[in-house]
Amino acid sequence: MANVRPVSELAEHSTDVAQRILGSILHGPHGSGRIVETEAYGGAEDPASHAARGLTPRTEPMFGPAGVLYVYLIYGMHHCANVVTGASGDGQAVLIRAIEPVTITDKMREARPKARRDVDLANGPGKLCAALGIDRRHDRLDLTNNESMVRLDLRTPVAASHVVQTTRIGLSVAQDTPWRWYVSDSPAVSRK
DNA sequence: CGTTTGATGCTCT
DNA sequence: GAGCATCAAACGG
User: Fold this and answer.
1) In degrees to the nearest 10, what's the CA dihedral of A119, A151, A131, A12?
2) Closest-CA residue to A152 (of A37, A28, A54, A16)
3) Strand C neighbours among A 93-122, CB < 7 A
4) Distance A78 CA to B8 C1' (A)
């Protein structure tokens, strides 16, 4: 019963879920934080998505049910965390790009030794995975299961008046598609 | 300040 | 073998 509502809210298009989960809490092995920046990926029309070229061993989680965690390694050293959305077979996900730390632990600080301010602990997709202790081992976890090492605690979405929509970061294609959203008054957004 | 570049390894062609 | 949904240090003005 407790998990019925979350799954249905995540089973929509990635562009809807990306906005809806701003303000929700992401919990990892090292701590937790409030989601303040997201990007939508997927759908057959998105060439920037890992799912654009069909199902592969790596992207298989994206084609599964909503509410699952998709984690991949980027540039050989950083991890990125995504929430799978849509219906099974769609190949959609929302990349979590930044969180404001809520529960800060010693493990979190040890994983991010370069961060001087708390706000720098997780203000980027690779940084947040390091801070929360998320890596490939957590790929395919059910984010809506209270027993999971990584889970998404859905909260009231941030009001649209406090949300900015822009283009996604770091892409070589689809650079004009405005599928990135962030909380305008958050100090933990990666870039404005 | 701003921009550029090196690190590092997995994934798919 | 090329290309990354990145980060931080090293530049230059």
Assistant:
1) -60
2) A28
3) 93, 95, 112, 114-115
4) 10
Residue A187 token pair:
């100090």
- Strand C within 7 A of A127 CB: yes
Which nucleotide is nearest to A112 if distance is taken from CA to C1'? Answer: C7
Contact A97, A78 (CB under 8 A): no
Return the percentage of chain A with pLDDT > 70, whole number.
Answer: 97
| Full domain range(s) for residue A83 | 4-183
Does residue A1 register a pLDDT over 90?
A: no
Please report whether residue A127 resides in a domain: yes
* Cβ-based neighbours of A18, under 8 Å, separated by 6 or more: A38, A39, A40, A94, A179, A180, A181
Domain count, chain A: 1
Q: What pLDDT is recorded for position A7?
A: 77
Which residues of A in 18-57 have their CB below 7 Å from strand B's atoms? 53, 56-57
**Nearest nucleotide by C1' position to the A136 CA atom:** B10
Residues A15-25: tens digit of each pLDDT: 999 999 999 99
Residues of A from 149 to 168 whose C-beta is within 7 A of strand C: which are they? Answer: 168
Say if A129 falls within a structural domain: yes
Domain with residue A54: its CATH number is 3.10.300.10
- In a domain? residue A188: no
| pTM (two decimals) | 0.96
- Model pLDDT, residue A43: 76
